[in-house]
Amino acid sequence: MEKLIIQGPSSLAGNVFVGGFKNAAVAVLPATIIQAGVYNLENIPDITDIDCIETIFTKKGMEWKHHSNNTVTIDTRALATHDFTDDEMSNIRASIYFAGALLSRFGKAVVALPGGCNFGERPIDLHIKGFEALGAVVRQEYGKLFVEAPNGLKGASIYLDTVSVGATVNIMLAAVRATGSTTIENAAKEPHIVDLANFLNNMGAKIRGAGTDVIKITGVSELKGHTSYTIIQDMIEAGTFMIAAAATRGNVFIRNVIPKHMESLTAKLEEMGVGIDTGDDYIHVFPKEWPLGRAVIKTMPYPGFPTDLHPQMATLLTQAQGDSTIKETVWLTRFQYANELNRMGANIDVNCPVAVIHGGEGLTGAPVSASDLRAGAALVIAGLCAQGTTAISGVKYIDRGYENLVDKFKHLGADIERVDD
Ligand code: UD1
Questions:
Q1: Are residue 254 and residue 172 in the same domain, yes or no?
Q2: Cα–Cα distances in Å, from 388 out to 30, 132, 134, 366, 383?
Q3: Whether residue 192 sits in one domain with residue 299
Q4: Of 39, 78, 98, 381, whose Cβ has the fewest other Cβ atoms within 10 Å?
Q5: What is the CATH number of the domain that holds 278?
Q6: Residue 263: what pLDDT?
């Protein structure tokens, strides 16, 4: 079993380059199977969630070639089955996107129910509601989702009761080749929704309104099967480095970012007294006031404060003065990190869906365990702030979504190693 060993404290300094967005890549990759073709995709992050998708593709006979600089070429022409029930499907959340993509290509899909980070119930009722509205018949049994459109897919007007990234993606994938027009109301507005729409439009789809809460899709009978596309930068990786810089009183240039995507975090950090300068494609985080002030945070769908930066922010707030609160409105029980931070000397009270972080407590290194991807990132930041040695197990969760995490933090001056236990 691998562990991350961190000797703290350290103050991060230097430049870090952000990679391609996991949540965009895991939507764009399944989209390539809608139309048989050869796709050249740049900025694909080197993370295990992508390895998992590669395994699923290659098991189905589709070619997947790696080039330098995070570029891959995928040939989806050999795909001849709508049955995606391999074990790997249950390792990641985004495998549910194969349902929409296969439905689009073959008019039917059988997929294993998805896995992914476990921070409470992760329903798929809105995905199903979307498929049914488009004319599909859906049943769920034996851990599989069976979806079939016996009379073809027909455009429809779909209102999402809750803003859901996953349901918005799946409906877009299923609707691009449906007959007629589809409208998704109360759609997710996340940057990866816009990225997927741009990719599909490059393929010849007709999607308007991505990035707003009303997305209109005019179905087309055929898409272009030869497309090149560059995935956008990972706003959650960028946010993790911004928070790590702030928590260690560091001086860090986070490069290769889209600063617009970071506005909710930037505003909170500035409010706490962190120095931030923003350029076209970089964010400079530097010490301004110390100690940092408290904050009141409520996670929300984009453009609100991202739930995927909640655990990392909780670590930062242990370093601030006074009592801060984080109210979670997306994943109501996403607080598994709190016990681990408390083992390191933090003082966090959780009463779901709210955590009260009593700041100003010095952290000390301890053996801790990552329960999911972002909880793991929170523990890494805590290890950088703490006196002494922190040993983090559960590294496989961190590897799901952070490319070269150890090297990137080392480059910023952290004392961090990956060891085989
Ligand atoms: C995506 C992200 C994940 C992030 C989350 C919220 C990917 C691969 N993952 O997950 O990192 O934390 O968005 O920003 O992009 N819901 C329903 N019914 C459904 C689907 C969702 O009620 O059918 C609810 C969920 O319980 C949750 C909320 O909608 O409360 C948002 O979930 P959703 O946006 O769908 O998250 P994911 O797409 O799974």
A1: no
A2: 44, 55, 57, 8, 8
A3: no
A4: 78
A5: 3.65.10.10
A6: 98
The pLDDT tens digits for 61-110 are: 999 999 999 999 999 999 999 999 999 988 888 999 999 999 999 999 99
What range does the domain containing 270 cover? Answer: 2-18+233-420
How far apart are alpha carbons 107 and 109 in whole angstroms?
7
- For the stretch 317-329, pLDDT in tens is 999 999 999 999 9
DSSP string computed for 189-253 = --HHHHHHHHHHHHTT-EEE-BTBSEEEEE--S---SEEEEEPPB-HHHHHHHHHHHHHTT-EEE
Rg (CA), the chain: 21
Q: Are both 111 and 160 inside the same structural domain?
A: yes
Does residue 12 have its Cβ closer than 6 Å to ligand 1?
no
The residue among 191, 226, 261 that closes a domain is 226
Question: Same domain for 259 and 182?
Answer: no
Q: What is the mean pLDDT of residues 338-346?
A: 98
Residue 117 bears catalytic tag: yes
Catalytic residue among 52, 117, 352, 385: 117
Q: Please give the number of the atom of ligand 1 that sits closest to the Cα of 26.
A: 8
